[in-house]
Specification:
disordered C terminus; 3 strands; three-stranded antiparallel beta sheet; mainly alpha; globular
Length: 317
Amino acid sequence: MMTNPKNLAGIAAVLFASTIWGGSFVLAKLAMDALPVAHVVLYRFLFASGLMLPFLLRSRVRLERRDLPLFALTGFLMVPVTIILQFGGLALTSATSTALMVGVGTPLLAVAGVLFEKEQLDRRGWAAVAMSSAGVALLVGLPGEGNDWLGNLLVLASIVVSVVWILTSKRLILRYPAFYATGWIIVFGTLFLIPIVLAWSGPPSLALSGTTWASLISLGVGCTVVAYALWNWGVSQIGASTAGIYLNLEPLTGAFLGILVLDDPLTTGLVVGGTLILTSAGLVSSTPHREGSNEVETPAPSPTGRLVAECGPGSEA
C-alpha cells in the first residue's frame, strides 16, 4: 500500500519544525554571549513580528473586536512572561538541561486537560506524569557543572506559564487559522515586550558580530516564523495527534546540540532525569485521553498554542 505523498511531506514538515525548535536553545546561548537575556528576546520577536505582520495585514483573516483582549492576554503570557523566564533560566543553566526540561510540557498539559478540560488519563498517562515529575526532581536536585538549579526552576516556571496561555489560546486557535492566530499572538506579545525590555535593559546594541546577528535572525525567522509555518502546514496534512508525537524530537535535538556544539557536560541528573522526561513525553503523546465515557483522541500540545498538536510556543523556545 503506497503512502500518501502529502502525508510524507507533512511528516517531513513537522519533523523539520521540531528540529528547528530544538536548535533554538543553542542559538539563544550563542546570542547571550554578546547580549543580555532581555535584548535576545527582543531581537527574536522584532524579527519575527516584522516578517509576519505584512502577511497578517494582507490576509483576508480579520480579528474580531471581541477577541482582542484574549489575543492581548495570550500574547503577554506567551512572549514577555514565558520566553523571558525560559531564556533567563537558559542563561543560568545548560542548553541541554533546558531542552530536556521542555519535555515536561507534554505531561503537564495532560494534567491541565484533566483539571480544566474534563479529560481523563489512563494508568499509562498517570505513570508518565509521575515519571516526568521524578525527572524534574533529578534535574533540579542533582545539579552539576553548567547545570544550575535556579535556572532549571525558571525554565520549569516558563513551562507552567506556557500551559496557562495554551488554555487561554484555545478559543483563538479554534476560531482562526492556526498560523494567523499564532502570528497575531506573537505581534501582541511583542508590543508588550518592547516597553518592558526598554525599561529593564535599555535600548539594545547594534554593534554586534556576524555570529550574533546570525543567531538572532535564525531565532526570529527560522525558529519562529519558518518553524511555525512548517508545523501548521504539517499538522494540516497528517493531523494534530500524529504531529504531536514527532514534537518530542524538539527536546531530544536540543539536548544533542547542547552537548555537540556547546560541550555541555553529562551529569547523572541530566542523563537519568532527561531520560525520564523524554520517556514520559513519549508516553503521553501516544496515550489516548478520555472525555466522559467515550474514548477520544486528544491532540498532543503544539508550539502554535500547544493545541493543534505540543510548545509547545513554546516553547517552545
